[in-house]
Amino acid sequence: MSSTAETFQAKPATTHDSRWSLWLRQVAAIMRLEVEKNFFGKRAVLVYLLAFMPIGLLLMIAILPPGTRDWLDFAQYPLLFSIIYNALILRTVVFFGCAWIFMNLFRGEMVDRSLHYYFLSAVRRDVLMAGKYLSGLVTSIILFSVVTVVSMLLIFFPHFYSASVRFFLDGPGLVQLFTYAGITILACIGYGAFFLIVGLFFRNPIIPALLLYGWEWLNFLLPPLLKKISVIHYLNSLVPVPVSEGPFAVVAEPTPAWLSVPGLLIVTVLVLVVAGSRIRRMEIRYGGD
Amino acid sequence: MTVASEQTITFDNVSKFYGEILGVNRVNLAIPPGITSLVGPNGAGKTTLMNLMTGLLRPTRGRLSVLGIPTDQPEQLFRKVGYCSQFDSFPRGLTGREFIKSFLMVSGFAGKEADELTTEALERVDLVAAANRRIGAYSKGMRQRVRLAQSIAHQPSVLILDEPLNGLDPVVRAETIALFRQLAAEGLHLIISSHILHEVDMMSDRVVLLNNGYVVAEGAIHGVRDEMDVEHPMQVLIRCDQPSLLAARMFRDDNVVEARLHDDRRGLFVKTRNPDRFYLLLNEVVAQGEIEVESIAPVDDDLSAVYDYLIGAQ
Ligand SMILES: Nc1ncnc2c1ncn2[C@@H]1O[C@H](COP(=O)(O)OP(=O)(O)OP(=O)(O)O)[C@@H](O)[C@H]1O
Ligand SMILES: [Mg+2]
Hints:
The complex is a heterodimer of chains A (289) and B (314). Chain A has 289 residues and is mainly alpha-helical. Chain A has one domain (29-288). In chain A, 74% of the residues lie in helices and 0% in strands. In chain A, helix 7 (125-156) runs antiparallel to helix 9 (173-201) and helix 8 (161-169) crosses helix 9 (173-201). Chain A starts with a helix and ends in an 8-residue tail after the last helix. With 314 residues, chain B is α/β, with parallel strands linked by helices. Chain B has two domains: 3-219, Rossmann fold (3-Layer(aba) Sandwich), CATH 3.40.50.300; 226-312, Alpha-Beta Plaits (2-Layer Sandwich), CATH 3.30.70. Helix content of chain B is 36%, strand content 28%. Chain B contains eleven helices and 14 strands. Chain B has helices at 46-53, 74-80, 96-106, 111-124, 140-152, 170-185, 197-203, 228-231, 243-250, 275-288, 302-312, and strands at residues 9-18, 21-31, 34-39, 61-66, 69-70, 81-84, 158-162, 189-194, 206-211, 214-220, 234-240, 256-261, 267-272, 293-298. In chain B, the strands form three sheets. Chain B has a six-stranded mixed sheet, sandwiched between helices. A four-stranded antiparallel sheet of chain B has the order 2-1-4-5, with helices on one face. Chain B has a four-stranded antiparallel sheet with strand order 12-13-11-14. In chain B, a hairpin with a 2-residue loop joins strand 1 and strand 2. The two termini of chain B are 39 Å apart. The A-B interface holds A 1, 4, 22, 25-26, 29-30, 32-33, 37, 40-42, 109, 112-114, 116-125, 127-128, 280-281, 283-286, 288 and B 18, 51, 54-58, 72, 74-79, 82-83, 85, 87, 89-93, 102-103, 105-110, 113, 150-151, 154. Bound molecules: adenosine-5'-triphosphate (ATP) and magnesium ion. Adenosine-5'-triphosphate (ATP) sits between chains B (18, 21, 23, 40, 42-48) and A (285, 287-288).
């Protein structure tokens, strides 16, 4: 450390850069620890189970195809996938998967009583938060975009092979595939920040997670202004094959993609700023919790 | 920021409440370099004071700084400070070496430097042989030592240790005390909490006596009496529920020269020529669970006279 300190003094003009390079190094060190835990820790089991849900279901359908009309008509498949994506993948697997991964970034270490080692290291707490958040992102994005892509391929190919090949190579299939994966990535970014903060503010995060779940499902009923304080609102307008929200939906002006992506990112940054100030004030009191 | 406060750990009218519960109240201290022991019975506020110094807790009232650094700035603070806390828990699945190295890297050390510092720290606590085993498989004493190694690995100038001798056998205890003395000789600030007065007496330069959240006394220790073991036996008062049973146990040790019941029949005075063996024996007796020990306090040296006067006889 002393040698770095000397270089700071020798070249004061680069102090600013050096600080950033220190922070980047620290974020990398934190991510190395955390990503390994996220993938191979014992808490990861639940995430794998969740992630396997849609894949397992679609495998079953591939082996035992249902005889209903929808499944016999290839033209219905993009809509079928959109329904499965919205209900099962986005709102269930990604939602609860992110809930588990991101809430445990801090909450899990309080349960394990190991958070103090980070708090006793020479690292700013907002840098720590950034490292943890990014590690959650790496994990959730890898897992859930794989789930998204595999699910989409599994719904098309086993039933109508050659039609599917045409759909993906000549038709809109490939673009849709990338769009769904992109929505999944945005969802991880948005839900990640929300659940990071939920894990910081609540001792028992199950209730707030369920409330958030209800909020997201009932989003279509909310007045336009409140809709904006949610993740699903921004994602809905991106879905390539729209699913009707039912007769009760309060139709807000559908946000165009060029607005909803930055909108979601801005909400995420705001949430992270609040989380950062919370972490700076946080105390370690494992026993008293 | 005065020059003095850049060399001391300064508490300025600091209070900490856990909701309604008092942790520490109106603490004013300026701790200089050397070994300072925090002494007091369970619940006195030793851990609270240490957690405040390291920013794990925020003061309800008052201000404090460590070598002039406010405790809410970890990036600066922990370049100077190492803390071996009372929490006997670890991140899952790491070996001793990975554990120490990982957190050095979190502090910003590059890989190679972190490797060297890790090895150095492991050598200092004599844990090199077990370094590549998972901490989950360590004994209590090894866990205590790997935590000590982790807290000194970045070569801090202030070292805060919460009951660092807990769980160590007498030989390792003596070695660890020697390590503390050596670190203090290298110019470090050491803040050590303990309730074993005999050891406090052996190793510290200064004592801060705490009781019920208040600093009740502080000051220098007059003389360290290394020769105590041989020259004259040490007398200890043990407050417990079955003093006569304890007396019977104690007489099995050759070093115990006298055991006498306290007048109120709720305590036992023991004279021993070998305090280390005595404490080990006492630990065994306590571990068997037959006898409930309330407190242990030496009765024949200056510090313990203060201790008894202020704390023992409440
Ligand atoms: N997280 C907490 N919540 C509520 N009260 C607490 C908490 N931690 C400590 N206390 C209270 O604060 C007081 C001081 O406790 P502290 O742990 O600092 O004592 P100590 O001197 O370290 O004791 P020990 O020798 O048992 O380690 C005690 O009355 C304790 O009950
Ligand atoms: Mg304590």
